[in-house]
Amino acid sequence: MKNEIQFLNAAKVITIFLVIYDHLSIPYEQAVFINSFRMPLFFCISGYFISTRNYAWKDFIVRKLRTLIVPYFVFAVVSFLFWFLIGRKYGDDANTFPDISKYLSGVFLAIPSKAYLGFNLPIWFLPALFSTEMIFYAYRKYCYKYSWIAGICSFFIGMLLKYLLPVRLPWGIDVAFFAVVFMQMGYFLKRKNLNDAFFSRIRLLYKLLIIVASGILTGFFSAINIGINRGVLVYALQFNNYLLFFAAACTGIIFIFTLSSCIPAVKLLRFYGRNTIIILGLHIIAYSVIKALLYYVFHIPLEVISENTYLKLLMAVGNFIVLAPVIYFVNRYIPRLLGREKAVL
């Protein structure tokens, strides 16, 4: 398990970096490539960590409420207050005047939409992950021998809901039906002991070949699956061609997992990998702080900040630096905000 945790920590850090970078309004082609697999990858990694065997329904729900929904509400309240007091006075929000009442209802409904969570849209993932894990648990408990079939069927249920329902469902339930198959995939890879059974047994050269091949395939599938608005957007249920979406998601997962297996164990990866939930919940605020520093302290023009790709890469790295003391403080003094009994550093 030590090697597997190291390998997964690297995968989690790479994935959250891609999330941060993508949220900086990056070039279209890069966004199409990243969006084609990053959310399925998140759900797959979550499936690698999930455990259902020793929990009754009540215990499982309580545990997930504590570790996913409590942090969600903490991030939602903090980010809404930040937006209301500071964020809405600058940038696009200063000119568009979002509906505050929808934002307030969005805190509780957690509908994956800018209309409801525009003050911090990325946190939609936490309630959606909760919904996905509830469905996954039900499949493992009641359809144990056929959970894979149930997961694939839920994908088609998600398709039906998308076209039949006139509104989006709260807590990302409509996304969860699509996501559960990727959670099944992660759980399957864990049971097959992916690291020890495969990655630790193949040479670095072969890993590099897999990385190149899977990266090229992911780029190919995502490039021909371009619809409107930056290709695939899982939170918006925008998949374009479902087969191409699934193909790009799978090759993208292989790409990141294989790449992660080549990265040696580093304490910094462990630090960030075990606290990606804080980065997910607060990176939008951290981005605003970094942007303000660049503009008001270093006097870098806003057009340079919004258009320079290399600067955006540095800003994504800066996000990790800015949030490091926050991660340490939360884990050291208030770990219960994240549903933890003690620090995870």
Q: What is the tally of helical segments? A: 17
- The shape is globular
Name the helix and strand elements from N-terminus to C-terminus, one letter apiece: HHHHHHHHHHHHHHHHH
Percent of sequence in beta strands: under 5%
Question: How would you explain this protein's 3D organization?
Answer:
The chain has 345 residues and is mostly helical. The protein has one domain. It is built from 17 helices and no strands. Helix 3 crosses helix 13, helix 8 packs across helix 9 and helix 9 runs antiparallel to helix 10. The longest helix has 29 residues. The chain is globular, with a radius of gyration of 20 Å. The mean pLDDT is 88.
Q: Secondary structure elements and their pairing?
A:
Layout: H1 2-22, H2 28-35, H3 38-49, H4 57-85, H5 93-96, H6 100-109, H7 114-117, H8 125-142, H9 147-164, H10 173-191, H11 194-197, H12 204-223, H13 242-261, H14 267-273, H15 276-297, H16 302-307, H17 309-333
Helix pairs in contact: 1-3, 1-13, 1-14, 1-15, 3-10, 3-13, 4-6, 4-8, 4-15, 8-9, 8-10, 9-10, 12-13, 15-17
